[in-house]
Amino acid sequence: MFTLHQLANFVAVAEELHFGRAAERLRMTQPPLSRQIQLLENDLKVRLFDRTNRSVRLTPAGRAFLVEARRLLHQADHAAMSVRQVSAGEAGSITIGFTAASAYATLGRLLEVARTELPGVGIVLREMVTRDQVEALAEGALDLGLVRPPVTDPDLAERGADREPLLAAIPNDHPLAAGDGPVRPADLDGQPFIMYSPVEARYFHELLISLFRQTGVTPVYAQYLSQVHSILALVNCGWGLALVPAAAARLRYAGLTFRPVDIAGPDPVELSLTWRRDNDNPALARLLRHLGDGAGPV
Q1: Taking a C-beta distance cutoff of 8 angstroms, is the pair 66, 14 a contact?
Q2: What is the distance between the alpha carbons of residues 134 and 126, in angstroms, rounded to a whole number?
Q3: Cβ proximity of 167 and 261 under 8 Å
Q4: 93-98 and 122-127: which strand pairing?
Q5: Which H or E element spans position 58?
Q6: Are 261 and 164 in contact (CB under 8 A)?
Q7: What is the pTM of this model?
Q8: pLDDT for 294
Q9: Which of 106, 132, 127 is nearest to 273 (CA)?
Q10: pLDDT tens, 88-141?
Q11: Of 13, 36, 173, 273, whose CB has the highest number of CB atoms within 10 Å?
């Protein structure tokens, strides 16, 4: 079977229609070039050139093969360029998992970095709760996750992606909607409250249970849901109050008022970037470099 080297030799002769000029172009002598063309013709079992002492012409088979030879050489060049780009993290794909709430702000910033800095890399998105993301990362089904901490699997690396406060979501006709300043946790005591599911939204469930325990607050749980947008929909219907990450205020329900919550200490809602320590995807490594060292929000 012919080689790419033989194809390149053939194309040079076909374009120059002169063995001497083709040999100069290829930086070789004429006898080995002639030998390569003969071997190619023997492999193909056709004559590619009509040769005389004064001219070289392509045969009909030679003209048809020139089209295919150029196409094969182009494909080979493209394949070599593609594999170099993948190796450098300039091509390929990254599969990213994200929680629904992270899509309100952090995911958009991450995607903007990817679009700007890695334009040749395909991004595949998977909306998943943290527990499912951690499993998918461990199995290699995800390259990168936007998850709620902590990540306890020693095979996974983690660094801070964002931190934000909690807001109280209140129906406009509720007395707390008209107040000034932050809502105190004590203001929620005895109030109907839309709570996060202890299974599908474990991070937020445990965060709020800890807050209520520390402040001695006992809301009346009207419903347990897993997604912030569903919780806000019920608050909007007047079923109760809720505490949501600040980015959720971007959903802009007309019937809701969002007020800050008086909580001591740093903003309580954390989000982490997580990936397998042994992930060898060059595009992921390049994206992580562009995302920085985790000192600030993604």
Answers
A1: yes
A2: 12
A3: yes
A4: parallel
A5: strand 56-58
A6: no
A7: 0.73
A8: 46
A9: 106
A10: 676 789 999 999 999 999 999 999 999 999 999 999 999 999 999 999 999 999
A11: 13
